[in-house]
């Protein structure tokens, strides 16, 4: 891994991306109906894992480490949330919903890892060759 000197603009780009991601996460949470299973956090984390795996397919991400940082650790880092997932799992278990907590834990892990792998797979696919005509 090549390390680049940290510059204030890099920190600001990641911060702006993180703030945007956090606002998007809040909007998803605020707009979701209440349910026993915290599906908004599940969906956020699965979509974020997929998007993070898919990021390298974007030419702008491949060309610019700053764009990659703003979108990866910035936007997607602010959007996804392990802390909310852990807190929700603990809360479910503490409220006596141990089975739901276990299922939520396993489902989030399995779906998140699968989504990230799918995103990475799609990012590595060769570009289709244009038909000769």
UniProtKB/TrEMBL annotation:
Membrane topology term reads: Multi-pass membrane protein
Per the record, what are the reactions this protein catalyses?
A: fluoride(in) = fluoride(out)
- The domain of life is Bacteria
Query: At which positions is Na(+) bound?
Result: 77, 80
> What's in the keyword line of the UniProt record?
Cell membrane, Ion channel, Ion transport, Membrane, Metal-binding, Sodium, Transmembrane, Transmembrane helix, Transport
Principal subcellular localization = membrane
Subcellular location per UniProt equals:
Cell membrane
Q: Which Pfam family name is an example for this entry?
A: CRCB
Q: Which residues span the membrane?
A: 37-60, 67-86, 98-118
Any inhibitors or activators noted?
Answer: Na(+) is not transported, but it plays an essential structural role and its presence is essential for fluoride channel function.
Q: What does this protein do?
A: Fluoride-specific ion channel. Important for reducing fluoride concentration in the cell, thus reducing its toxicity.
Query: Family per UniProt?
Result: Belongs to the fluoride channel Fluc/FEX (TC 1.A.43) family.
Give the protein's recorded name: Fluoride-specific ion channel FluC
């Amino acid at each position: 891994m090549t390390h680049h000197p940290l510059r204030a603009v890099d920190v600001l780009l990641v911060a702006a991306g993180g703030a945007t991601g956090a606002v998007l996460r809040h909007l998803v949470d605020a707009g979701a109906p209440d349910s026993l299973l915290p599906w908004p956090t599940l969906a956020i984390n699965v979509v974020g894992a997929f998007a993070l795996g898919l990021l390298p397919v974007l030419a702008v991400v491949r060309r610019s480490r700053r764009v990659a940082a703003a979108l990866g650790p910035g936007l997607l880092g602010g959007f996804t949330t392990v802390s909310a997932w852990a807190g929700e799992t603990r809360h479910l278990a503490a409220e006596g919903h141990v089975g739901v907590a276990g299922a939520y834990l396993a489902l989030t892990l399995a779906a998140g890892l699968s989504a990230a792998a799918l995103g990475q797979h799609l990012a590595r696919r060769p570009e289709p060759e244009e038909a000769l005509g």
